[in-house]
Amino acid sequence: MELKKAFQTALEFEQKGHSIYEETSNKTKNSIVAKTFRYLADQELIHIEQIKEYIAQLDNGINIELKGDDLQKTKQFFTMTVQEFKEKTELSDDDIKAHDAALDLEQSAYNFYKEQYDQADNNELKAFFQWLMDQENAHYGLVKRAYDYIKDPVSFYSEEEAWSVDGG
């Protein structure tokens, strides 16, 4: 795929993600879903700006500092959010659909960025697509963890902390 087309597709992924996350955060009645999707919408805006900056600087040979999320930041966000909302909450059908759409989007974006990474012919470009893959991976994990928590907090904590039930 031509480089310019790859960046345009990356922008479209991020813009679609922002739109879905923004809409979900505004529509849901579930406070955990609202906060999680607001966080993701804000992160997508960072990605959009980074991609635009990267495109602008690419021709000038100027390196940019890639900002954004990492797995540790998403884990911290999730832990603080869960502590803030300790009660069991209900997911509406729209919330479930939003989580499913978010997981699909993050996975599709990751797969696209991985393909571009594999095709990239220079280290700077590979680093950029690796950064995007890391972003999508962190966001996928956040959405999955939030969804699992809201569905069943007790089982979530059992799995998270590797608790086991001893029958004897």
CATH superfamily: Ferritin, core subunit, four-helix bundle
CATH architecture: Up-down Bundle
Q: Separation of termini?
A: 59 Å
Average pLDDT over all residues: 77
Helical amount: over 70%
- The SSE string, one letter per element, is HHHHHH
Radius of gyration from the CA trace? Answer: 18 Å
Briefly note the CATH topology name: Ferritin
Q: So what's the overall shape?
A: elongated
Number of strands: 0
Proportion of strand residues: under 5%
Give an overview in words.
The protein is mainly alpha-helical. It has a single domain (3-160), classed as Ferritin, core subunit, four-helix bundle (Ferritin, Up-down Bundle). α3 runs parallel beside α5 (123-151). The model is unreliable at 84-88 and 163-168 (pLDDT under 50). The termini are far apart. 78% of the residues lie in helices and 0% in strands. The chain is built from six helices and no strands.
Structure summarized in a few sentences:
By secondary structure, the chain is mostly helical. The protein contains six helices and no strands.
List the helices and strands and how they pair.
Blueprint: H1 3-27, H2 31-58, H3 71-84, H4 93-119, H5 123-151, H6 153-160
Helix pairs in contact: 1-2, 1-4, 2-5, 3-5, 4-5, 5-6
Task: Give a quick set of tags describing it.
168 residues, mainly alpha, Ferritin, 0% strand, disordered C terminus
